[in-house]
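In response to reviewer comment 3 from the previous cycle, which asked for concrete evidence that the modeling workflow produces usable outputs, we include below a single protein chain processed end to end. The sequence was submitted unchanged, and the resulting structure tokens are shown without manual editing.
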Amino acid sequence: MSTVNSFGAKATLTAGGKSYTYYRLDALHTVQLTRLPFSLKILLENLLRREDGVSVTADDINFLVNWDCSAEPSREIAYMPARVLMQDFTGVPAVVDLAAMRDAMKALGGDPQKINPLQPAELVIDHSVQVDEYGTANAYELNSLLEFQRNRERYAFLKWGQTAFRNFSAVPPGMGICHQVNLEYLARVVFTTDDNVAYPDTLVGTDSHTTMVNGLGVLGWGVGGIEAEAAMLGQPVSMLVPQVVGFRLTGKLKQGATATDLVLTVTEMLRKHGVVGKFVEFFGPGISALPLADRATIANMAPEYGATCGIFPVDVETLNYLRLTGRSEEQIALVEAYYKAQGMFHTANAKEATYSSVLHLDLGMVEPSVAGPKRPQDRVALSRTAESFKSQLPSLFGPNSNKNGDRQIVRWQGEGGHLAADEETKSSKPTEPIASIKDRLGVDVDKYLHHGSIVIAAITSCTNTSNPSVMLAAGLLAKKAVEKGLVTPPWVKTSLAPGSRVVTDYYEKAGLTPYLDKLRFNTVGYGCTTCIGNSGALPTDVTKAIEDHGLVAVSVLSGNRNFEGRINSDVRANYLMSPPLVVAYALAGRIDFDFDNEPLGKGKDGIPIYLTDIWPSQEEVAATVASSIDSSMFHKEYSTVSKGDVNWQNLKFPSGDTYGWEGDSTYIRQAPYFDNMPATPEPVTDIAGARVLAVLGDSITTDHISPAGSIKLNSPAGKYLTSNGVKPADFNSYGSRRGNHEVMVRGTFANVRLKNKLAPGTEGGVTRLLPEGEQMSIYDASVTYAERGTPLAILAGKEYGSGSSRDWAAKGTRLLGVRFVLAESYERIHRSNLVGMGILPLQFLQGQCVESLGLTGEEVYDIPGLKAMLDSKFADGKVITVHAKAADGSVKNIQAQVRIDTPQEILYYLHGGILQYVLRQLAGKA
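The workflow returned the following structure tokens.
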């Protein structure tokens, strides 16, 4: 590592008996430094250490030191994270792209070995396990077996990547989710190089919830896979110096309130405040009352409140957590010494920083809450949930819903249960649809289901399973419920998917596992299940009842995402909540339940049992946490984390520097982005004669654009798989097929809840081919437009591309032939991804939208000034005129802002995408 070191910041630090080189912030000799937020000091150190006079200059450093908290972001910096974190849904296509880049490098006459991660790239396989089996003792074993059967080819490809690429490692399936493994094991807090240079651990991740590690004081956030690949290949992250919103916490949580209730409150407040593209930093006396796990829960939800990150400072609690989770004493000593030497170690009397704006929350004001039925920021007090659902119900009806709501409602008081898959299913192929409850119990559930019936109750990974207090609260509630004689209704599909194997260890030590099992919350896997859409099929008679009567069925889950169509295609309303509330609602069996006034059932003595009778106290939870968790559990589980189970160990995989692509593979296909790519980019041209593929409303998520869940038989992707000999039982999910662009382009805009205003009255990936007006799938229309040589466009409302950092939402859009998107506003990651795929993001001027301008989407669109604007690198501003010509010949001239936000993004766009730019650079052609 070489640096100009013009500020004389290079120095020596001694910690744990070792000497390290580090770059002192106090070498800048300015009082301004003391008022900088913690997160910006991390950025400042990054620039100070990497000052080379080219990508990082002394002016960049001085600008950040003198940060104007109230200024709109305008200064670009080149930020280099220490490492990259991936999960398998996003990791497989990233490795596919790297493998394709090796082939392309060879075609350009370069050395394929140049294509290697230059920064450590760590992948955790956690997104592929599905909840096929549940509520039985062998649920985990069967789901794991099915996972390997479905994903053998993908996993073999990742094992090839481990041997073919330097600086790339994979944590096998069944070990936990990437965010919790990162928090408990991978995160260093202070990173060190082979030559003993010490600096803050930082990262970007291909999952939005990379921010969970912000709770540990580690700066990191989610990016699209394409941007992460560029970072792996040594490209700095081009970013504007952000505004930083301070969130002051005081007081402590009251009885009955959980960390989940806190995070839903914080999410609601910050989303209302507006923090998209901003850093959020938590401070104040209240943070000392928050365990590290609570901090991680809040940090995890940064994508839901819209921020780039949600960070807490390093303090004594950080050190305690590192010790609990089995980090070495040498590493803990380095973390303490480093952050104290840099003046960044938080103490009770620490001087508060200056922020762009400040919010305040008294933790004592937090009340039990849920969020739903469609968005994480839509918090509802638990006491008002039934009322809220009833008011939301008309907006949740489907095309065949019974809007009168006059179906018979019968309360179920019988024994719960689930029919296990039969022996034939266990031994071979993935499960067929789950057998009916009537076959198992002789119960006709049809007459028990109604609008609001809960058909999925999932303690699922990510937000909450990293938090022992809420996990043990769920176990304690289950224990009390079982002891009182309560049961879960049979139509509720229950599941427990911890984010770490340590959860199972402390459940066992606390003696709570038998009670969770009794309520059918058996462990189904250690991975991201229901929250990512891997909830598995519902029992056949439950699905039939929902379809026959057009019911608005409900899921309750302890995750962080509840967007339309994400959890399960049979479920139209989804609510986020704490793990103990998931258990409570599973007992209730319906979302319109009044916990204050309705009993959950009768106890063994015939006395009605209310939620307050079984809700554990804070003291009870705290005592259980203290007696059930110790560092030996973390040592035990993470000592073998890289080995995997026998399935992983016995998995055969190919060898070689370049991958041997299989022409008939339906999982792994050579990425097409470099096909026939010239050594130098072709000039950008104006856009002419574009047709609109879809006109979309507000809050269109990346799940709407590129779903991760099940593949429908009659969808374009389903037809493709069938034509390639894949049986419907073996379709797997869109997420697992992300290494195959043929599946993913057909799945783009295929979400079952998507509403395209060009095809009114429809749901799903439907459009009208123009000018004919024929209704067809979005994919089929794109093929016809491609044959005609017609460029395509998307019109959208506010918050376009919110949700997951899903690179296929941009990749698929590009492969459909979309040249530009015109929206009212964008979420940060998706806008960046669009540019990274060579798609032009345009934004309506303030106060304008599709409706106000009278646009129908049937117009023909031209952007004549694009080439000149880019040639001049926005010398005359970023507002461009879009011409929309109607069928009658009239033309609307629309003023739009070009959302290519940094000079580096101009280069990416000119090269047709970020990967093409990086490849040409590595080949010496850029």
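The longest strand covers residues 687-695. We consider this sufficient to address the reviewer's concern, and the full set will be provided in the supplementary archive.
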